[in-house]
Specification:
single chain; 69 residues; mainly alpha; 68% helix
């Protein structure tokens, strides 16, 4: 759906129905809610990210071997 909508907005802009892609998107899309990051969770997720990076580096060679099978 998103690709079709984007194509329609670009087509409408190209055909002169909308003066710009920005105006076209404002006409068809309504923001229902807005979210802000919770800074108090950063330290928690930083620890998980470090584990993810360590795992990735540890498994990088194995992933290479798997791709060659």
């Amino acid at each position: 759906e998103a690709s079709s909508l984007g194509a329609a907005l670009l087509g409408g802009t190209g055909a002169g129905i909308y003066p710009s892609v920005h105006d076209a998107s404002k006409r068809v899309y309504r923001t229902k809610a807005s979210y802000e990051p919770d800074g108090s969770s950063k330290a928690f997720y930083d620890r998980y990210y470090q584990v993810y990076k360590d795992l990735y580096l540890s498994l990088e060679g194995a992933f290479g071997k798997l791709s060659n099978i």
